[in-house]
Amino acid sequence: MTKVLALHGINHNMFGKRDPAQYGSFTLQDLYKSIEDLGKELNVEVENYQTNDEGAICMKIHQAFLEGVDAILINAGAWTHYSIGLRDALAIFAGPKVEVHASNVHTREEFRHHSVISAVVTGQIVGFGIDSYGLALRACVAMLAARK
Fold first, then answer.
1. Integer distance in angstroms from the first to the last C-alpha of the chain?
2. How many structural domains comprise the chain?
């Protein structure tokens, strides 16, 4: 079965509590359920992983590479804008990688307009709230199907 790793970065455990105007009212558990349900519909196994530890998310990407995970979707949160370590870890992973953000980062503060990981991912989906993640999962599945 196709396996997709859904990575949720720093502060995402606070979804539903922080700035609902930007992030909506969904919780991390709501997000997990949404992605997992869509994965079942698409016949894809989804593993969700959230951490506030930058090293741990890099190790999870290394593990995905070593275990042959098929694709990664990632919302790295604030790490998106400055983590060269995360960028380098993602560059190791050869499968499809989709950067995702619930808010439209391009309409927010200037520092959020730049992503250091965008150069090593396949694509980017922003601004559709919780639906951004479903769009990202569908993109991963479509890219994998195109490779066959």
1. 14
2. 1
Asked whether the beta carbons of 49 and 42 are under 8 A apart, the reply is no
| Residue whose structure tokens are 């990981």 | 117
Residues with a catalytic annotation lie at 23, 101
Contacts of 46 (CB under 8 A, 6+ apart): 3, 4, 5, 6, 35, 36, 38, 39, 137
H-assigned helices in 75-115: 84-92
CATH code of 100's domain:
3.40.50.9100
Helix or strand run (H / E) with residue 4: strand 2-8
CA distance 82 to 49: 20
- Confidence band for 10, pLDDT divided at 50, 70 and 90: very high
Instruction: Please tell me which residue, 54 or 110, carries the higher pLDDT value.
Output: 54
Q: Domain range holding 133?
A: 2-147
pLDDT in tens, 81-107: 999 999 999 999 999 999 999 888 777
- What does the pLDDT read at residue 145? 95
Q: What is the DSSP letter of 82?
A: T
